[in-house]
Amino acid sequence: MREIQQFRGRLLADINQEQSEAGIPEFSENVFTELATEWLSETGLTENPEVCHFERSIGNRIARVNGFAVSDDEATLDLFTTCFNGQGDTASFAPEDFRKAARQALAFFRSVSAEMVASLEPSSAEYGMARRIADLAAGLHRVRIFVLSDGVCSLKAIDEEETDRPKVLYELIDIERMHRLVQSGLPRDEIFVDFREFDGDGLRCLHAPEISEDYDAYLALVPGEILFHLYDRYGPRLLEKNVRSFLSARGKVNRGIRDTLRKEPDRFLAYNNGIVATVDEIEIVHNREAGSRHVVSVRGLQIVNGGQTTASLHRARRDDKVDLSSVYVPAKISLIDPGKIDEVVPKISLYANSQNNIQMADFSANDPYHVELSKLSSNVWCPGEQGRWFYERTRGEYEVEKSRTARTPAQVRKFNERTPRSRKFDKVELAKFILSWEQRPDKVSLGGQKCFSWFMQDLKDTHSKNWLPDEEYFKRTIAKALLYKEAMSVVRKEKFPAYRAQVVTYVVAYLSHRTGRQVDLDMIWQKQKLSEDLVELLRDLAYVVRDTIVESAGDRNVTEWCKKAECWTAVRACGFKLPDQLPGEVRGTQAGGGGKTPSSNLSPADLNAMERCQAVSAQDWIEISRWGNSTGKLKDWQSGIAATLGGYAARDWTKPPSVKQAHRGVEIIRLAEDEGGPLSGE
């Protein structure tokens, strides 16, 4: 029980930190819901969670939820409702408290309709949530209601609702279960499969020779119907975490698999490579007379290869009504030594998935990049040598470090002064900081785990295999963190009613875009804060960005719209007017993008020229270059600049034009407009 109390204490401390950084009395229940749903997303219990508090009387019922999530295939809706105490020692909730919360969440789902959506303010988060659910309602396969709590409750289950479609299931997550999930990192301990439910004898198998002390292996043919029921029951949490993240970020259900299931199900075994799975426990019955072995039950089942096979088979059975009676899937099942799980499972996952081009970067817990960044956070001190930032490479590492180095009250105070929670960040936050600055707000808006997966892929694409971050990289990463955190603080203080997370990433991305990445990150690192002028610029920009996002979404769901590259295109074209006096951090650099040698300050005219050039498409720049060469209207060097800018545009301006290029580009644009060129409209 002491561990539970300590875990809850850390949780409440995190909530207080969030409120402190917001600068306003943020609704504690919402902060708790956000933290809890992020953990559930990491462990695979849900996908794409969004926090949104809704509570009102509808008829004679109270409809209430704290957030929702929609699965990637849009077949599962998760609703989150919170029982939050937030005071003193670990609280206890009566079973009726959980049942009441569950009833109110179900009342919300059943009350969502076109009429209810029309009654809500279109700019509110409640409208976005209700609209999204109403649009998906007809195609939902199941609804799961999660009751989240910072207290303990003796009620551990609520029977599912007897409805035709969608079926309604309940997940009760009190503080004890939450602690188990967070500690294990994956909810595999909760996945117990008794194969006798499907076949009285269990799953027939072959036992591989005992060739290693680290694992024991079995080979089996799994009936397709069993695999369907397992995925239907457990969903993506059945997939090993790294494979799940990879598939959710880049994978689509394999059409070839589905075509085989529909047209030639009896050949599925011949065509498919099967699945690779690991288990924490396995029970085998050996019938020596018959010479057979059967897998009776397993605990901790995780599919580390074959995620697309499993998901495709499930969808074919569920949506296409495919008969799986003749479908069998070959399976290799490995029982891993408990002391070797963290070492062996990621390697099995990596090597088993090598044919799917899953890179080492996708298995990031011990990736050299993160290990090196963690070392840098330990060794690089803020200016003045009085404090440092803490990179939490694995969950709970911050508290472990505090417990290890701070045993007396005085040591705890010193630790908190040197390494406050406000300077702690994890790998998902790291991805948000960097991808926002790298002008990928659409990827950040996908949600924590998908954002992180894209970040890791971007690292692989942009750096050599053996590249590692250095001290300069770390310092500029912290400067990006300060920008992101300040933007979040501004949005919270301004009390934006909806889409805060989306506005924050788009604000940072637009600042990077509008300045051509010419923000002095070294200056921000040195001061460990933003100037008042830059904070004011972020505040003004937040309103313009928010309005642009909402208006450009039109009738579309705003949250979903923010995940589209087209949304970023609309925001880049918002025409934000820069102040006459730019903040001191906005200055030219010889290397660009916060480079090594700051030069003179940029002017609004410089930045306006850069924006004007970036508003021209790659095709138009190439056409201008060709037109200039063929007509002689442009000098050779001008045609060359147009071609260069066309190349920048083709790469979506990942490299912005220099100030000199921008001013010359504007001159070229004017010539093309005035002399009958591609931009003249003739």
Automatic annotation (TrEMBL):
Pfam families cross-referenced by the UniProt entry: AIPR, AIPR_N
Every Abortive infection phage resistance protein N-terminal domain range: 32-180
Span of domain Abortive phage infection protein C-terminal: 239-552
Protein name: AIPR family protein
